[in-house]
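pinging the channel bc i need a second pair of eyes. not urgent but kinda urgent?? the chain im working w is below, pasted from the shared doc
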Amino acid sequence: MTMTAQEYRANARQCLSWAESARDPENREAFFALAATWEAAADRIERSTAAPEIRAPGELALHRGP
């Protein structure tokens, strides 16, 4: 079963919640790092499923989006 970017981001939010409630600084940092990993994975999924570049004849490349 493949997870969606939204599900990855939900996991990141859960990790942030755990980080906020963690008493031990080492655990807090670990949860923040894990949240960042989930966010990065979500970004990769979104990029891999984004619309491809549009190339007009004779032009370099027109990018869609930011």
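so Residues 25-49 form the longest helix (25 residues). and The chain has one domain: 1-66. — does that match what u expected or am i reading it wrong
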